[in-house]
Amino acid sequence: MIMKTTVSLFLFVTILLLGSGCKTTNLATEKVSHEQAIQALEQHSFKIVIEEIYDKSTSRRRPKQRFASDCYFSMQGNEVSYYISPEDIGNRTKRSPRHECGLTATLSKGKKQKNGDIHYELKTNGEATRVSTMLIILYKDTNRCFVRLSKSFLGSNYNFTGHILPL
């Protein structure tokens, strides 16, 4: 009886320790990816892989959400390029992919918020049809981000989530 209790207690403690070790490793990995994302943003050499696109809908509380595939925004130096697949654009616009390279843009320095998130503002320059503003919110201790695209050259305002990778 004592042997059985000891073995089960040992197994329980082992599983508990293994589980907490995985969580610690995951947090360390997220912090490293967060630092890489900050460095990529500061060096103007990053790619935002879009995971979900939120389009305005009739209800303010429940915007339309689409899971994006192969969509991205990237910045190299002062040049911005993007690709949004036809399936992810929405019903209001033409069903052709949106793709553009070579837009010039400026990216502001990051402003750290009280909750630990960092806000960046990216403004594209050029013709009136190519001017837009992007608010990039890098979440605390991760490379995940939220982007609000307003005054958009894509035809309407969009919000999307994704993660930031260095180029």
Short note summarizing the structure:
By secondary structure, this protein is α+β, with helices and mostly antiparallel strands. The protein is 25% helix and 43% strand.
Explain the overall architecture.
This is DUF4251 domain-containing protein. This protein has 167 residues and is an alpha+beta fold. It contains 1 helix and 9 strands; from the N terminus they run αβββββββββ. It has one helix at 2-42, and strands at 45-55, 64-76, 79-84, 98-107, 111-112, 118-124, 133-138, 144-150, 158-166. The mean pLDDT is 76.
Topology of helices and strands:
Blueprint: H1 2-42, E1 45-55, E2 64-76, E3 79-84, E4 98-107, E5 111-112, E6 118-124, E7 133-138, E8 144-150, E9 158-166
Antiparallel strand pairs: 1-2, 1-9, 2-3, 3-4, 4-6, 5-6, 6-7, 7-8, 8-9
List keywords for this structure.
single chain, 167 residues, alpha+beta, Lipocalin, 1 helix, 25% helix, DUF4251 domain-containing protein
Mean pLDDT, rounded to whole units? 76
**Can you summarize the main beta sheet?**
8 strands, antiparallel, barrel
What is the spatial order of strands in the main beta sheet? 1-2-3-4-6-7-8-9
Whole-Å distance between the termini?
60 Å
N to C succession of SSEs:
HEEEEEEEEE
CATH class (first level) name: Mainly Beta
β-strand amount: 35-45%
Determine the structural class based on helices, strands and strand pairing. Answer: alpha+beta
Extract low-pLDDT stretches. none
**Number of strand segments:** 9
Oligomeric form: single chain
- How many structural domains in the coordinates? 1
C-alpha Rg, in Å?
21 Å
Kindly report the CATH topology: Lipocalin
CATH architecture: Beta Barrel
Number of helices: 1
